[in-house]
Amino acid sequence: AQSVSQHNHHVILSEAASLELGCNYSYGGTVNLFWYVQYPGQHLQLLLKYFSGDPLVKGIKGFEAEFIKSKFSFNLRKPSVQWSDTAEYFCAVNADNYGQNFVFGPGTRLSVLP
Amino acid sequence: KAGVTQTPRYLIKTRGQQVTLSCSPISGHRSVSWYQQTPGQGLQFLFEYFSETQRNKGNFPGRFSGRQFSNSRSEMNVSTLELGDSALYLCASSLGLAGSGTDTQYFGPGTRLTVL
Asked: Which of A46, A90, A96 sits opposite B101 (nearest CB)?
């Protein structure tokens, strides 16, 4: 069965600091990878996704993620965080086969201090 | 375009009762997936419906069931409620099968179920 781990439960940064959130998955086949964000009081929104092609994908709000197949990783990055980035971030994996459901990581709570 | 809507937004029930939650997908979307979100277990997949058929099911007991109507709206039912069923239930819609890998799921705001 697929599983997804996220390295940090809670990350605290000051504004303008750089961000990297780790995500690793366990599945040997072709996967599709996602990062979702849940801002306080709001519903889950897609930040970015990787299906194929360039392993460096850019998403909304200045976020990017790099797929490293050999490391089974899909880490999320942002060069300079803002207070408004305070949210919970979820990595998700979906195997590229019909009938495979989405598996979400446990989430990383990001707190950005003004 | 309107997003995914879920009703009701909040619900309080007592143990042993049953509950029905509703989800209206984005117009044109044919797939609806349901998730349970709790602080301890995180986001867990319940099931996915596509063209009125359950296409995939997560590891939940049979007390959790669902259905999808011809207009793609979906309902989820939980019978014989237990305290542990207290959670945020999220619905997500996509154009095609969520498991196809080339589609994107859009989430609704969720229904907060509290079981007393």
From this structure: A96
